[in-house]
Automatic annotation (TrEMBL):
The keyword Methyltransferase applies. This is SpoU rRNA methylase family protein. It comes from Pontibacter ramchanderi. Pfam families: SpoU_methylase (PF00588). GO terms for biological process: methylation; RNA processing. Residues 25-167 form the tRNA/rRNA methyltransferase SpoU type domain. One of its GO terms (cellular component) is cytosol. GO terms for molecular function: RNA binding; RNA methyltransferase activity. It comes from the Bacteria. InterPro entries: Alpha/beta_knot_MTases, rRNA_MeTrfase_TrmH, SpoU_MeTrfase, tRNA_m1G_MTases_N.
Amino acid sequence: MRKLSMDDLNRDSVEEFKNKKKIPLVLVLDNVRSLNNVGSVFRTADSFMVEKVYLCGITGTPPHRDIEKTALGATESVEWEHAPDTLELVKQLKGQGFVIGSVEQAENSLKLNKFIPEPEKHYAFVLGNEVFGVEQEVINHSDFVLEIPQFGTKHSLNISVATGVVVWDFLSKITS
């Protein structure tokens, strides 16, 4: 086996990417503090063709060198918008027909392995602050809470890792 070079990968240009059909998913970052995490979410969104990333509250926005360090240019390819208030954005997205899922550990949560997305619907996944998670009011307005099953001694995953897990799971389920 030979490792593939950048030329072998034959990736789309930013313009080609922007014109491609995306998966029916947007990501909502609820007061994420780490700019490196924000950049990683952009990179994941680019990799898996996410429609848009919403950066809410105190979440940092491009351009910023710490975001770019992990995004590696994905802030140019992925559509994004800043929203001052996560709850207001969630209400707006619901009004537009999005199904809202908060990624959190909560009572009556839906384990990720049991989640079956409906391909004709558009989803918004809310991912929370590194310390406090998704705001309770946002959870209260969500259609469901998605929980990633974990089996070790730690009680949570880094937001960038959680994003990769839930987006890949979503993509693999709607394309299978």
